[in-house]
Write a structure and sequence with these properties.
Elements lengths: L1 H53 L3 H7 L4 H10 L5 E7 L5 E5 L6 E3 L7 H9 L3 E6 L9 E10 L5 E10 L1 H17 L4 H30 L10 H7 L11 E9 L2 H26 L6 E6 L2 E8 L2 H15 L3 E3 L2 E3 L3 E6 L7 H17 L5 E3 L2 H23 L2 E10 L5 E11 L5 E2 L1 H10 L3 H16 L7 E5 L10 H12 L6 E6 L7 H14 L2 E7 L6 H7 L3 E4 L11 H17 L3 E4 L5 H9 L4 E2 L13 H8 L5 H15 L1
Parallel strand pairs: 12-13, 15-17, 17-18, 18-19, 19-20, 20-21, 21-22
Antiparallel strand pairs: 1-2, 1-6, 2-3, 4-5, 5-6, 7-9, 7-12, 8-9, 10-11, 14-15, 14-22, 15-16
Amino acid sequence: MRHIWKNIPAAIAIILLPLIVVSVHFTLDSAIQQTIEDEAEHKAIRWATHFAQKLPQIENLIETGTPTDQQSEVITSIVAIGDVFRFKLFRPDGTIVIVSDETNSSVSFHKVTKYNRKAISVFDNEQSLVFVKNGTNKKARPDVYAEAYVLAKDVDGRKIGVVEVYINQTYSAGLVQSTFSVIGYGLPLLCGFIYLFTSVAFLWRDVKIRRAEENVRLMSLTDELTGLNNRRAFYEKLEGKFPASGANRTGIIFFDADNFKLINDEYGHEGGDKFLIHISEKISDNLRESDMVARMGGDEFVVTIDCENADQLGEIAERMLSSIREPLDYKGNTIVGNMSAGCYFPDEGISLDDAMNSADLALYSAKSAGKDSAIIYTNSLRTEANAVREIESSVTNGLKDGNFSIEFQPLASATDRKTVGFEALLRLEDGKGGRIPPDVFIPVAERIGFIGELGEWVLQQAISVASAWPKTYILAVNLSPRQFEDGRLVETVSNALIAANFPASQLELEISESLLLNDSEHVLEQLEQLKRLGTSIAMDDFGTGYSSLSHLWKFGFNTLKIDQSFLLHEDSNSTKLYDVLKSIIDLGHKMGMTVTAEGVETDHLAEMLVELKCDQLQGYLLGRPMPVSDLAPFISKEVHGFVAEKLGTLNQGGSEKAV
């Protein structure tokens, strides 16, 4: 009996040990299962958050089910991040939007009307669902994987759908199982300790993952080149400071490098990068701890400063510009650059977007005023900007609306004042019964990139009209320097000549000397091709800007046009005017050029120019610019025996083309 009682503990132990082992293993299996599920849920949530933030316009994709090319590229790039190997995206009603391919990480898209109840439950209850599955007998599945249904949220934290994320948990499951198996069978009593150890290991791994994610987040907020805040960080850090309120407000300074392309062209991209770093350092040197600077992209920087008024903000901007002007040593060369700045001290209640827009308007004004300066925003700048936008609209819609037209001003022989041709002059109606001056709308057309199309239209229309003129008449057409940039000018001129069957020898193309300053070889090649076509090339507005003998000599112009600004001083000093005009005319003749004087409005000037042997005259004395409809009677008075019927046809058809 005593033997029996003595063996009862052993028996109990024998009975209980399997139960303990089974219980431990059951507990371990449950713990392993829960650990894998928890980890899978964390991974899925992080992946879904990353997916929603990186995918542009995800709301449109959920609504339409059809991704853009940009969205497809983003999805393809992130479909296999970490342990994720597949995903499905559901709408709030449980219908599927997209399903990623299982084998090659490419994405296939489907329109499905079936409703997934798990997705609906997750969206409504905001509780994730995770299922750990055995994939050993399934095609294209890991040995252990999890299917996790988690919410998809936009950048503002609003739920927009549900993502079912397929996560490879083989490694995690193997790590847990290998850790617990030996101890589970050999030392059940230590299972709790081992479980704690394993949990700590997972926790440590999770901490490392979180640290890595934090590093990635910080990198996503930093400009790689300069180490400054980037655009995203700029807007995040300004949350709460707008709308503006209180006496001490956050002023904004918008900086943009002047002629940065020239620095890049001369010193290469490495030199350009060094200059951008130089800018960031000089700006940072002038900041307080409470201020902020960000590189918004390219050569644009934005500074925010807590200040009391606009004048204080402007003084700080000028100080920064002065520092930026300091020379930068680069590989034995000295880089000297400058910037323009737009300053805005916010009004009460102004939003950040409106504040940035106002600073940008001030920057634009600084650029327009000659660069290398700081302009403080005033309400008049917005009025001016609105006026500029109206002009831009008039320019871009001018051809479509029929508001562009061409007028023709006579060119006359100086000796007998007989017409030898006309200069085509572009006009623009403002749609309100008035006109926008050429010196206003031409720079706008150049700036917005419309001058190429507009210049081509002028050539076609003017040549078409001139094709009905006497063969002795020339047509002079002005060219913008921007028309030389894309290299299509020669083809454009040639096509217009061929279309109208117009002799190239009757066409004179006028250019200003500013064209020759930036890219002389590129321009010279096109000018030579135009001359080989048979056209004449005229130097327009000579005597203004950079008038250079080397340019006259190098480019071999056919005609020299004296700018009308010389003739405006007729009454102030006739002797000096006489001497200057004589020098220019003699110079032109010695270089084999025909000399034309612009702005001739009096007989006295005309007689003086005849005495100086000027070849051609142009101005109100010889004839004002006239529409196509007035050409026929004007030419009929000049040319005896000219066929009036041909000009009548021109009057009817040509005017329609020119308007």
